[in-house]
Amino acid sequence: MVLGKRHDFVLLLFFLFGAGCSFHSNQLEALKTMFREDAGPEPQWVLSWEGLTEKVFAVNAGSSIFFANSDGILVHFNGVFLEKINGLRLKSGAEMDISITKTEVDGSEVFSYRGPTSDLGDLLCDFPDENINDLALEVGRMRVIEITQKCFVEDRVLEQSITLNQARQLVGLKFYVHPKRLPVTIRYRQIEELLNY
To answer: Alpha-carbon distance 195 to 108, whole Å?
Structure first.
């Protein structure tokens, strides 16, 4: 009878520790799987410029929005225009750091572009106009508010724009950061086709 109780006790310990090891192993595997699958937040914005396409995060800071990624790109939108761009790399590998200032001259706005060592030129623009348009999406349409601005350099007419949804939240930008290059576009990535040049 004593041997039977010891035998039962050993079997009980075996089942407890055996089940415990198996249970902990399953927990550990589940935790490993969760951490492997969770790579953190995904950037919800796409920045495009002259063949470069980068996913970026939007960070609100008062009236400004900073668009950034882990590759060193940092774009400062001050709520009215793109004021500064750092870390954009062209196909040649050259990094573009550009500061932009805006002044009013004779009923127009003048955007002045400056690199780290030189002036890049100016862009003369009309004051912005605000229009309501329908934007074609992958599924259906979305009513948007577009704040557009016609600009002039040499014999070319250019256009910059800010696109807002009906709640007046930013969904897209198209701004020149150099008067002789294509504009930078930044759009919320769920919008398939937002800004065409």
So the answer is: 24
What tokens does 6 get?
């010891």
**Spacing of C-alpha 32 from chain mean position:** 29
- The SS3 call for residue 139 is coil
Provide the token pair at 103: 């002044």
Can you read off the two tokens belonging to residue 31?
Answer: 């935790």
Q: Which residues of 136-163 are buried (b: 16+ CB within 10 A; e: fewer)?
A: eeeeeebebbbebbebebeeeebbbbbb
Which residue type, as a one-letter code, is found at position 188? Y
Q: Following CA atoms 15, 18, 23, 26 in sequence, which dihedral angle do they give, to the nearest 10 degrees?
A: -150
Q: Report CA-CA distances (Å) from 10 to 7, 15, 16, 144.
A: 5, 9, 10, 73
Q: In the structure, how many helices (H) and strands (E) does the chain have?
A: 1, 13
Q: What predicted TM-score, i.e. pTM, was given to this entire model? A: 0.73
Alpha-carbon distance of 86 to 68, in angstroms, equals 9
d(CA 129, CA 147): 5
Q: Summarize pLDDT for 57-100 with one digit per residue, the tens.
A: 999 999 999 999 988 899 999 999 999 999 887 766 777 899 99
Q: Which residues lie across from 55 on neighbouring strands?
A: 46
Cα separation, 170 vs 110, in Å, equals 23
